[in-house]
Amino acid sequence: MASNRFTTQIKNNHPGLSPEKPLTVIIPIAGIGNRMKSYGPKCLLEVPKKNKSIIEEIISSIKNTYPHSDIIVCVGFEADKVIKSLLGKVRIVENRDYGQTNITESIRLCMNVCMSNHVMIVYGDLIFSPSAISEMTRHGSCALVDSKLRFKDSEIGVNVVDKKVTNFAYGLDTKWAHIIFLENEELKFFKKQCAEKRKSKLYPFEIFNKMLDKGLTIAAIEPRNMRIKEIDSSRDLFE
Questions:
Q1: Which of 125, 99, 117 is nearest to 27 (CA)?
Q2: Domain spans of the chain, in order of start
Q3: pTM of the model
Q4: Quick count: other Cβ atoms within 10 Å of Cβ 128?
Q5: Which top CATH class is 23-232?
Q6: Residue 124: is its pLDDT beyond 70?
């Protein structure tokens, strides 16, 4: 019987899991959040039973899942408060025009200091389990989706055919879960669109649709055991 003593374990080299293939994670939290502004930045609300704010919980879930990730947070509304809570934990950029720009500008500012060819964008008003994102860097460019009514009807939906997103639009039953991973041609396209002033006024999902129209691919990922919730108001933290 042949010996297997020289067999070595194949190294898992998906982005974020090894220093040879780092992952950049962008978290835009610059906006005011109209429903929450009287309470200060939404991202600083404490998550029940966690003794952490929403943004700290997001960062913790990312670091636990992708230990070799470079996390960049874009602040804006009441930036000083947010920066004070995050110093030494992540890289920080500031969108000083947060009141006149949309989330695409915040993402663009983070892209400007991105040092990786593998980028995950995570909206900053989510609470999710590590299992929600643990498979995302294994499938090429992909979007996290929800077909189990975890997101409100008013959120952006997706059409999915053969496990691939074909369109982002309102009024669809399956929702985009506000997390997306981009690499290769999809990342190049997204960066270019964000960099063009006229197109930087588009929302991210509109740029994703342009990407799909060009024949680029975004896989649809929905782990069976994922937990994820969007926080619109303080009440959402206790439901």
A1: 125
A2: 23-232
A3: 0.91
A4: 23
A5: alpha beta
A6: yes
Question: Which DSSP string do the residues of 158-198 spell out, in sequence order?
Answer: EEEETTEEEEEETT-SSEEEEEEEEEHHHHHHHHHHHHSTT
Three-class SS of residue 207?
A: helix
Q: Which of 45, 50, 207, 227 is closest to 121 using CA atoms?
A: 207
Q: Are 119 and 187 in contact (CB under 8 A)?
A: yes
Return the structure tokens found at 230. Answer: 């969007």
Q: How far is CA 88 from CA 4, 79, 82, 114, 147, in A?
A: 46, 15, 12, 18, 37
Look-up of token digits 């930036």:
79
Residue in the structure block whose two tokens are 């509304």: 77
DSSP class of residue 24 equals E
Q: Computed over its alpha carbons, how large is the radius of gyration of the chain?
A: 18
Distance CA 150, CA 17 (A): 28
Q: State the first-to-last Cα distance of the chain, in angstroms, to the nearest integer.
A: 59
Q: Residue 20, Cβ neighbours under 10 Å: how many?
A: 9
Rounded Cα–Cα distance for residues 63 and 189 (Å)? 27
Instruction: Convert the pLDDT of each residue in 126-174 to its tens digit.
Output: 999 999 999 999 989 999 999 999 999 999 999 999 999 999 999 999 9
Query: Which two three-digit tokens encode residue 128?
Result: 């999710």
Whether the CB-CB separation of 118 and 155 falls below 8 Å is answered with no
Cα 191 from chain centre: 15
CB 123 within 8 A of CB 28: yes
> Residue 180 forms beta bridges with which residues?
121, 143
